[in-house]
Design a protein that fits this description.
990 residues; six-stranded mixed beta sheet; FAD/NAD(P)-binding domain; alpha+beta; 50 strands; 23 helices
Length: 990
């Protein structure tokens, strides 16, 4: 290529020069350039190396279909491989480099692989390595794993950074009446027409400027149309989103958009996202994404200097770069003729080679007047040259074959073999494209959803037809009836052209340049039985990765159809999948990284706990105190001290994270009676009851206590991790199953700060904080009693006498903003009594000693009987899960049941997750499993909870092994009652 920057013309801003670096060399471009246009203007021709053969590759297009100029942007932690130079907006200080080459793309040692190209056909890796001798020795899998390491080192293209991404990304949700994708004349017309009808419209464009193909035109009329539409869109208050790619369409009008927010900026603002991931829900979607110009499979069609015709027009008219001096333009349709004339007017010598024998008389006259030499009945057979095109060998059709005719010198070979409407996004909705024989392309099929195609994406090639189709699409989107606009062909009908080769000659003609898929690979796939287009794709890698069939899909289907002796429609097409273009993993993750990987919730006592020296841990989505270590204490020493203190005196634990749901209404008691396995209809006001909630299938969903505050007012508590699912479950029941119940449910988890105060000295400590110390006497507040009271200072509170630790215990709730004031009082009263603060580790110890279950035991696969709580299942009323819990499979006597576990050797320990097996049958899934373990200060040794077939009674006096081969090995244990401490509950009733 002999590309030169023109002194005038184009849409670049020559008053704003930009410096950038390519492969360590400094160059200059202008605002409005892409990296590709700037490199072309600076005389760079080899911008990449091919995937398998390391062949030199240059610029092949001007858009997302680019398969040659695939580069790496940035360095270090900001290195971004596999970027298409044609889509990279130039900015001052941009760093870019070639990839898949050493030492650089201009002189690549790997190019020697091209000498062995005949051996690297489709399926090469499998057929070669699986055929080596070791496979014959019965070592197929193991030896393949060794070969695979070598293959993976050779595979791939760019190299991703191993460093953490320093940039941030954002997620946004939006809604609109009409979403329009593409800002060509069809897209802008559709958006404007819908907005003028009062619709809320979002117009998205992946380019950094509006106009679509109008940006590639040089005539004043196109500029006027573009300027008029842009001004009208602004006046109509259309939300315009440039640098935004619609990468996928999903259910119910949902679209995924990727907006490049600061990728094009030199000095990126602090904390501004690099990219923004949009989820847009639209009542109607109009796809005006245009069409992609196709190339032809011929020998060396991947050489630098082989480019699509419309790309040359773009570089000339938009970027002010004449891409060559002596140009051969090969076509089979009318669209390339304007390009030929414009190139001549810019100073190039152009020979237009048309496959068709006769062309429209007006076109012929235009070319003659423009000084374009026209040759008919010819097509490119072979591109000549090495790292740049020096000429082209032409061929003419001779029946069903080709014959060489002549050779023309050139420094740029342009190809236009027809256009492929961008039907990818519509394909995401399951609409299978329809082959149009006259236009030689796939056109969009009708879609059952409110998704409409317009412009070139629907097969309209002229500006007038595109504008009319955009308006018609807007009317359709708004539910109006319109007359169908039939896609119009060229003045001279297109003559399909997919491959040019001489009979019997083996050539390197590329169908998918990005993956080095050749025409011979397609024929080999057919020869080896891969006749399905989906199998063809996977065997050859045609249209995979960032390409998704944009460049070579049609050619591949045509060659397969030829091999099968069928038409293209009979072969079919692959379904295009999202994303349309690559989406960075960082954009998918958004803010959900590091400590924000998942939502983090803090209790109202979070800061207070930290001031007391708490070490925090995650519990579901909550941050809760894990333990309160004193100076020099380990976690083990801390939790054992805390658990011991609770048993001896008292301890205070933050339980604010428990789920709390207000259940109110005249039918609230009936509602609770239906969802809980035990009776709630007659629960007295001022009392609490422990309840088990089952799923429809009879398995335990969640447990907790429910407090009756008044006749029609209940406070339902759930486990910390179960709050969300229980809330959703209750709402579903009321909305779908029992809408007649007069009940309202509301999550109030964040409304209350709560603590559990447990231990023998608990009543004394709490009484010291109450305005009425006698309020919590045994007579006034018996076990499972609930009352409203008042802490000193007028702090209203709810107090329930319930225990999870097995000790005398109370739960106290106050409004969230008064949580710290409550804790200050309780801690001041508890500390002189020898009390302590305790966290989840000590809480776990206390509950394991008592045999109380949590989510570790209620893991979704156990019944209420398995958990030893079968007596809580009422026999006098139906409840959710009551029927299916009685299935014979769930009533087997040998089902795993909850048990306690001691080590035979009391000085030994074991691990949670270990399997419980018979000592002489340590295999498979064993007889049960261990759910939780702890060192029990009350019992003086390690204990655990778990499930074992048949339960405690079936294993009394029998030996059991806790097998844990990865961590601990086998430990002999004995099965005991799960209620290992104070089994009669005398302490909590004290």
């Amino acid at each position: 290529m002999s590309a030169t920057r023109l002194s005038k013309g184009g849409r670049i801003d020559r008053s704003r020069p930009l410096r950038f670096t390519w492969d360590g060399r400094s160059y200059q471009g202008f605002a409005g350039d892409t990296l590709a246009s700037a490199l072309m203007a600076n005389g760079e021709t080899v911008l990449g190396r091919s995937f398998k053969y390391h062949r030199p590759r240059g610029i092949m297009s001007a858009g997302v279909e680019e398969s040659g100029a695939i580069v790496t942007l940035g360095t270090g932690d900001r290195a971004e491989p596999n970027s298409k130079a044609t889509m990279v907006e130039l900015f001052d200080g941009l760093l870019a480099s070639g990839q898949n080459a050493w030492p650089n793309v201009r002189n690549d040692v790997g190019a020697g692989l091209g000498l062995f190209g005949r051996f690297f056909s489709a399926g090469f890796y499998y057929k070669t390595f699986m055929g080596l001798p070791p496979f014959e020795w019965g070592r197929g899998t193991s030896i393949w794993m060794q070969y695979e390491k070598l293959i993976r080192k050779a595979a791939g293209m760019g190299e991703a950074s191993r460093q953490a991404d320093p940039d941030c990304y954002d997620h946004v949700h939006a809604f609109c009446d009409v979403l329009v994708v593409g800002s060509g004349p069809a897209g802008m017309s559709a958006a404007l027409h819908a907005a003028q009808q009062g619709k809320d419209v979002i117009l998205v464009e992946q380019d950094f400027d509006l106009g679509g193909d109008l940006l590639n035109h040089s005539d004043p009329r196109s500029d006027a149309i573009r300027a008029e539409l842009m001004a009208a869109l602004t006046a109509a208050d259309v939300r315009i989103m440039t640098r935004t790619t619609a990468f996928g369409l999903y259910d119910y009008g949902t679209a995924g958009l990727l907006q490049r927010v600061t990728d094009h900026l030199t000095g990126k603002p602090d904390h501004a996202p690099r990219q923004r991931f949009w989820t847009v829900r639209a009542a109607a979607t109009i796809l005006a994404a245009g069409a992609l110009e196709r190339t032809v499979a011929f020998e060396n069609n991947d050489r630098p200097g082989v480019m699509t015709a419309n790309a040359a027009r773009s570089y000339l008219n938009r970027f002010g770069v004449l891409p060559g001096q002596n140009i051969v333009l090969s076509t089979n349709n009318d669209s390339a003729y304007d390009t030929a004339g414009e190139l001549v007017r810019a100073g190039a010598k152009v020979t237009l080679v048309d496959l068709r024998q006769a062309i429209d008389a007006d076109l012929s006259e235009q070319m003659k007047a423009a000084g374009v030499t026209v040759k008919t009945g010819l097509a490119p057979l072979k591109a000549l040259g090495g790292k740049a095109v020096t000429g082209v060998q032409l061929a003419s059709p001779q029946g069903d074959t080709w014959g060489a005719v002549e050779t023309l010198p050139c420094d740029l070979l342009l190809v236009s073999a027809g256009w492929s409407p961008v039907v990818n996004l519509l394909s995401h909705r399951g609409a299978k494209p329809i082959w149009d024989q006259d236009l030689a392309c796939f056109l969009p099929a009708p879609c059952a959803e409110n998704v409409t195609m317009a412009g070139a994406a629907a097969g309209h090639w002229s500006t007038e037809h595109c504008t009319a189709s955009g308006i018609a699409a807007a009317n359709l989107a708004m539910g109006q009836e319109v007359d169908a606009i039939t896609p119009a062909g060229w003045n001279t009908p297109i003559k399909p052209l997919y491959e040019v080769r001489l009979p019997g000659k083996k050539t390197k003609s590329f169908v998918d340049p990005q993956h080095d898929v050749t025409a011979s690979d397609i024929r080999l796939a057919h020869q080896e039985g891969f006749v399905s287009v989906e199998h063809l794709k996977r065997y050859t890698t045609l249209g995979m990765a960032t390409d998704q069939g944009k460049m070579g899909n049609i050619i591949g289907l045509a060659l397969m159809a030829e091999a099968l002796g069928k038409d293209i429609p009979a072969v079919g097409t692959t379904r295009f999948r999202p994303p349309y273009t690559p989406v960075a993993i960082g954009a998918l993750a958004g803010r959900n990284t590091g400590s924000h990987f998942k939502t983090l919730r803090r209790t109202p006592l979070h800061d207070w706990n930290l001031r007391q020296g708490a070490t925090m841990t995650d519990a579901g989505l909550w941050h809760r105190p894990w333990y309160f270590a004193r100076k020099g204490e380990s976690i083990t020493e801390a939790y054992i001290r805390e658990a011991t203190t609770v048993r001896d005196t008292l301890g205070i634990c933050d339980v604010s994270s428990l789920g709390k749901i207000a259940v109110q209404g005249p039918d609230a008691s009936e509602f609770l009676n239906r969802i809980y396995s035990n009776a709630f209809a007659k629960l007295a006001v001022g009392k609490a009851r422990y309840g088990i909630m089952l799923r429809d299938d009879g398995m335990v969903m969640d447990d907790g206590t429910t407090w009756r505050l008044s006749e029609n007012d209940f406070l339902l508590t759930t486990t910390t991790t179960g709050a969300g699912k229980v809330m959703v479950w209750l709402e579903e029941l009321l909305q779908l199953r029992w809408p007649e119940l007069r009940v309202h449910v509301s999550s109030v988890s964040d409304q209350w700060a709560g603590v559990s105060v447990a231990g023998p000295e608990t009543r004394k400590a709490i009484a010291a904080c109450l305005e009425d110390p006698e309020a919590i006497s045994a007579e006034n507040l018996p076990f499972m009693g609930v009352m409203e009271s008042c802490l000193k200072g007028g702090i209203r509170c709810l107090i329930a006498r319930i225990s999870f630790s097995g000790e005398l215990a109370y739960e106290i709730y106050v409004p969230a903003d008064l949580g710290e004031a409550m804790m200050d009082q309780l801690w001041a009263a508890s500390e002189p009594l020898g009390g302590c603060l305790y966290g989840l580790e000590a809480l776990g110890t206390l509950r394991i000693e008592k045999g109380h279950v949590t989510g570790a035991e209620l893991d979704g696969r156990v019944t209420i009987d398995d958990a030893g709580l079968g007596k809580m299942a009422s026999t006098k009323k139906p409840f959710i899960g009551s029927a299916l819990r009685q299935r014979p499979e769930l009533e087997r006597e040998d089902r795993p049941q909850l048990v306690g576990i001691f080590p035979k050797d009391r000085s030994d320990s074991f691990n949670g997750g270990a399997l419980l097996c018979k000592p002489d049958e340590i295999s498979g899934f064993g007889e049960g499993w261990i759910t939780a373990v702890t060192h029990s200060p009350a019992l003086g040794h390690w204990i655990g909870l778990g499930y074992i077939s048949g339960g405690h009674d079936a294993w009394q006096g029998k030996s059991v092994a806790a097998t844990d081969p990865v961590r601990k090995g086998d430990v002999m244990v004995e099965i005991v009652s799960p209620h290992m401490f104070d089994p009669k509950g005398e302490r909590m009733h004290g």
